[in-house]
Design goal:
Two copies of one chain form a homodimer.
Chain A (H helix, E strand, L loop, with lengths): L8 H34 L6 H19 L2 H10 L8 H19 L2 H23 L4 H21 L5 H9 L5 H25 L14 H15 L6 E5 L5 E5 L2 E6 L6 H19 L16 H15 L3 H14 L7 H5 L17 H17 L7 H13 L24 H21 L3 H6 L4 H12 L8 H9 L5 H15 L3
Parallel strand pairs in A: 1-3
Antiparallel strand pairs in A: 2-3
Organism (chains A, B): [Myrmecia] bisecta
GO biological process, one term (chains A, B): proteolysis
InterPro entries (chains A, B): Peptidase_M32_Taq
Chain lengths: 507, 507
């Protein structure tokens, strides 16, 4: 009597162990690549640019070979299927590894090569096109990216839309159907709220945050705050770079950077707290699953939720302003003003995404999202972009750019082939808001602790609920369900904004 | 009529190009490993030690796989033999690559693995043994190293002595027969000279070099000098580390470090100039052969010759002392003494190799050399080491250590399996001396230039003769012949020391 016999538990375990060994190698090499990237931006002498690019290319080749190793594919085939003998985390390791393997092996080498070339060509082309405000000079590259991303998406999964396949790279499990649902709601809530604020709101005074602030003292202040929030300097470094970022080689080796402007206190401060949020997520990973895909960041949106949690939900809150005030008075005794409303001033006019505040930011994102989806589904032509961009800008944010440099050339994401990246910024903001509301429910006295500069309980809670969980869940909604009991709900975000700004702007 | 047909020139060129591609990959990965090593000592947070070790191990495995790739071996076999169609540098690429391939593939994995384990075990064992001055606690590890190195040498080349095969790792082409010849001559010249200096020499005053010197000002001074000698900060960095070293990722990315002591001016200063010499050698490589073995450092001895050239031949010279004096007076106005004799004081008693001056240093080296050769040829038993070490110390340097911690446990080289490393320090000093005498002949006005702080002509000469030449020649004697017209001649070194110290010590 012959029946299909499941592989015995020991065999599964053996295959699983072999799989982990291979995955840990890829992870270690990825960590090395991360360190090289950090070094390049923070330490490397200018003259080493060419040799470093060559080193990164060789390393990328080694990683690619290991990621597409046929033996890895065989192990994954054997482990794909019912995994009763594997625990929840182990099953997620297999799921994530399989997803990664399929995405990587599906893309022909020719496309991968052209993507790498195009990325390095595009940046300079974009810089020049923006300088000259000449969209036409960038249009050719953009068209090639659109075609290439469509081709790549078809190779990965011809059954899904090109946009959904590309989006999945940045926000696992997210779809444009779900984004449409979320973003329509957000747009319909925010456009009138912004108009109301602009029309009858009373803007608080924030002029004292511009002026002249010693950057050394700013850096010291921000290091103190980063450490008090919980950045662990025995497992990370804090340096200065032209563009602040958080990178590094491993959860035990997280490299975060900041930058400070002498004439603007807010940017350095909120930037440092933002990066601290990213860094806590990285340092907080569960080392029981070190080097395995279940231990990776969940998605770009969840990563951003951790930075925005600290930057916006905590640092822009009323309780935090008391803690911050005390520190600021030591560093800059001349500052005796009320911080909370000033830090939350709405930055009208709403021209640039990177300068936007939490109220207008999502409308920028929705604009980019609608256009990039249109580019990939064919409903938007590259040549129509400048006009459509300007129309949407006027409609959502009530402003029209003076030229394309300040319009559809203001961001470079598409020039890097990153279609589906933009939405993650606002998903992050909404995740962060929903998580914070839940934290307030679960942690009584949270706001008093924040006021007193005690962040340990909150950090521990985030660590348990989000940092250590890594990529255990298949998508952000599942993680939100586990943390807050419900999938992402933009109504929570909209309610938070209306409540907050009604008070600050005396609506 | 069949005759053996030589491969046509195009086929050779094609194989050569394929070879270069593979070699450049290995070189790029080696550069990455170099950067990780620098980062570990200069930047890395303590908590990252374990993850970094794992990353380095994975990277070492990748490099090993590429170094022992059968396809590389096949290309080398095809290219080994008459190479009329290859130029001089191209032929040296094949020669060096073949040598490296044979050495790497000859060693069984078991030995390579045990070496790596033993290296990481040994350091802690040695530290503890030295703390307790307990040679017995270290003897077991040392015996295992002796056996392992003998086994490894037999695997690489059973026709040569174990010592010669091991020595070849550090000083390509050197043999113990040649070292015996050189070192006997040096010993017989130096032992009486040292006795003479100790007996009737008049020691100059150097007390003013000890005291209290702001380390920040020392660092600034040394950076200025390093830059004026020619260290290029657009293709390198200068940082501080516990143990000064020169490393990095590429000739365009050389990372040198220094350290300064508040109570001792000489150590930081000579250390910085020493590392500058290493750094110039690294930065000066010929980028036409970038990433190929012909472009690697010739040997440990030649590398050391470049650091000692600047540290001793230039910086300890009378002309340089005028240049240095001018800088020192700016940094430390209280220093108005005569520098030249003070910097050249003989550091009696001669207890520690790392503290030794140029006169007593070679005798330390000869002691270690004689013993390590004896350990590998069986004429010295591990258990006899402490006694033999002390006897030689008394005979060559007229002093006996108070215990084994200050005796045969003072250096860790053997604990790392480095048999044949010691001689390179003194070979470096002798190469440097011979090269300097030749530079004086070929560059008229050299000493006036040094006095004026003009190092450009000398640096350019070294660059042409040595830095750019890399590993073109098969051994140090050949390089010396090309640069100075004769193989290494210890008589030049001895004459230099006698002339110099007769004046300083008024013999």
């Amino acid at each position: 009597m012959a029946t299909a016999v499941a592989a015995p538990a020991e065999a599964v375990q053996q295959d699983y162990n072999s799989l982990c060994e291979k995955l840990r190698e890829v992870s270690a090499l990825g960590g090395i690549s991360g360190l090289l990237g950090w070094d390049e931006q923070v330490m490397m002498p200018d003259g080493a640019a060419a040799s470093r690019a060559a080193q990164q290319a060789v390393l990328a080749g080694v990683i690619y070979d290991k990621q597409t190793d046929a033996a890895l594919g065989e192990l994954l085939s054997k482990l794909d299927g019912p995994k009763e003998s594997l625990g929840q985390y182990e099953a997620a390791v297999v799921r994530e590894a399989l997803r990664e393997y399929q995405r990587t092996t599906a893309v022909p080498k020719r496309i991968a090569k052209r993507k790498a070339e195009l990325s390095s060509e595009a940046f300079q082309v974009w810089v020049k096109a923006r300088e000259a405000s000449d969209f036409g000079a960038f249009a050719g590259i953009l068209q090639e990216w659109v075609d290439l991303v469509k081709e790549q998406s078809a190779a990965i999964d011809p059954a899904r839309s090109a946009y959904d396949v590309s989006l999945d790279e940045y926000e696992k499990g997210m779809t444009s159907a779900r984004l449409d649902e979320i973003f329509v709601q957000v747009r319909e809530g925010l456009v009138p709220l912004l108009k109301e604020i602009k029309g009858r709101g009373k803007a608080p005074d924030a002029s004292f945050l511009s002026g002249s602030f010693d950057t050394g003292r700013q850096a010291k202040l921000c290091e103190t705050i980063a450490k008090e929030i919980g950045f662990d300097l025995t497992r990370g470094r804090l340096d200065v770079s032209v563009h602040p970022f958080t990178g590094g080689a491993h959860p035990s080796d997280v490299r975060m950077t900041t930058r400070f402007k002498a004439d603007d206190l807010t940017e350095g401060l909120t930037g440092a707290i933002h990066e601290t949020g990213h860094a806590l997520y990285e340092q907080g990973r569960n080392l029981d699953y070190d080097g395995l895909p279940v231990n990776q960041a969940m998605s770009m949106g969840i990563h951003e939720s951790q930075s925005l949690f600290w930057e916006r939900m905590v640092a822009l809150s009323e309780p935090f302003s008391h803690y911050l005030s005390a520190h600021l008075k030591t560093a800059f005794p001349e500052l005796k003003h009320e911080l909370y409303p000033a830090l939350n001033v709405v930055r009208d006019p709403f021209k640039f995404r990177v300068e936007a505040d939490e109220l207008s930011y999502p409308l920028h994102i929705i604009l980019w999202y609608e256009l990039e989806k249109g580019l990939l589904d064919g409903s938007v032509a590259v040549s129509d972009l400048p006009r459509l961009w300007n129309e949407k800008m006027q409609s959502y944010l009530g402003t029209t750019p003076k030229d394309d440099a300040q319009g559809c050339l203001q961001d470079v994401h598409w020039g890097m082939g990153a279609f589906g990246y933009f939405p993650t910024y606002s998903l992050g903001a909404m995740y962060a808001c929903q998580i914070y509301q839940e934290a307030k429910k679960q942690l009584p006295g949270l706001e008093d602790e924040i006021r007193a500069g005690q962040f340990g309980q909150l950090r521990g809670w985030l660590n348990e609920k989000i940092h250590k969980v890594g990529s255990l869940y298949p998508d952000g909604d599942e993680l939100m369900r586990a943390v807050t009991g419900a999938p992402l709900d933009p109504a929570i975000f909209l309610q938070y904004l209306r409540d907050k700004y009604s008070v600050i702007y005396q609506l």
